[in-house]
């Protein structure tokens, strides 16, 4: 039990570090100028960051995380437990994401630009369009806002809050960053947290999310982690009761 709380402590430390860095970035960095097209190099950099936490490339990131777990955990049993819990918390997190998006129905930041360009009449009108009509509306503004942002907008025509990319990043930072901190792998842990910050900021500067979406994602990740702990507690109670019954 003591070891379990040690792992939890380092995971929380990692995610709080991400939260603090993101808060500083929100205060100090200039607001994204979504109406101004990105340069080719900036657009490529932001796209690589965002793709590392999106479909399908997030699977490669997951494999890297699983590989780091294999490298730094003491035995196969610990590693298998680590992989299972990683998978469970991701499943919980993305289930929460779907529910939150349906409940909040928060529009994406770029939709205001479509309204300003008179491609759609209103934000509500955009979300009443079919997927094909949404794509057509977005393609109309490529010359105005640049191909990099538009290609990302085409991949995200649903609601905004919370950010799925940032939610994945937060879980990854908690699980993998926390493990690396526990094992005193300071450089690798810093790299993981910095990558998480970069992905979150890429979602803002590509016009896919607001800072509110990102911070809500971090909150959802903490809720997911709490629910995982509840499931683990229930499992341990059931397992201990069954063991006690066998000894009678």
Describe this entry's structure for a reader.
This protein has helices at residues 2-28, 40-51, 58-72, 76-104, 110-116, 123-127, 131-139, 142-145, 147-155, 164-182, 186-205, 211-247. With 248 residues, the protein is an all-alpha fold. It has two domains: 46-106 and 161-236, no CATH class; 108-158, no CATH class. The radius of gyration is 20 Å and the shape is globular. It starts with a helix and ends with a helix.
Q: How would you sum up this structure in a few lines?
A:
The protein has 12 helices and no strands. It has 248 residues and is an all-alpha fold.
Low-confidence stretches: none
Q: SS-based structural class?
A: mainly alpha
Span between termini: 25 Å
Average pLDDT works out at: 91
Strand content: under 5%
What is the share of helical residues? over 70%
The helix tally amounts to: 12
What is the C-alpha radius of gyration, as a whole number of Å? 20 Å
Query: How many separate structural domains?
Result: 2
Give the tally of β-strands. 0
- In this structure, how is the largest beta sheet organized? none
H and E order: HHHHHHHHHHHH
Q: Write down the overall geometry.
A: globular
């Amino acid at each position: 039990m003591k070891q379990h709380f040690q792992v939890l402590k380092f995971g929380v430390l990692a995610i709080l570090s991400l939260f603090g860095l993101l808060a500083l970035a929100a205060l100090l960095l200039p607001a994204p100028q979504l109406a101004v097209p990105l340069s080719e190099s900036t657009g490529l950099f932001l796209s690589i960051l965002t793709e590392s936490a999106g479909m399908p490339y997030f699977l490669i990131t997951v494999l890297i995380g699983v590989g780091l777990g294999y490298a730094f955990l003491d035995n196969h049993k610990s590693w298998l437990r680590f992989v299972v819990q990683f998978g469970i918390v991701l499943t919980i997190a993305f289930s929460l994401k779907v529910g939150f998006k349906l409940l909040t129905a928060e529009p994406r930041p770029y939709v205001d630009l479509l309204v300003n360009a008179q491609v759609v009449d209103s934000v509500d009108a955009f979300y009443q369009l079919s997927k094909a009509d949404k794509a057509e509306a977005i393609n109309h503004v490529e010359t105005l806002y640049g191909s990099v942002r538009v290609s990302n907008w085409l991949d995200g025509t649903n609601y905004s809050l919370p950010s799925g990319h940032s939610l994945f990043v937060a879980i990854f930072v908690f699980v993998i960053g926390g493990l690396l901190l526990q094992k005193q792998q300071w450089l690798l842990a810093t790299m993981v947290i910095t990558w998480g910050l970069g992905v979150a900021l890429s979602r803002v500067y590509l016009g896919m999310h607001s800072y509110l979406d990102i911070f809500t994602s971090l909150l959802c990740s903490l809720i997911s982690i709490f629910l995982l702990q509840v499931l683990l507690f229930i499992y341990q109670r059931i397992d201990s009761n069954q063991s006690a019954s066998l000894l009678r």
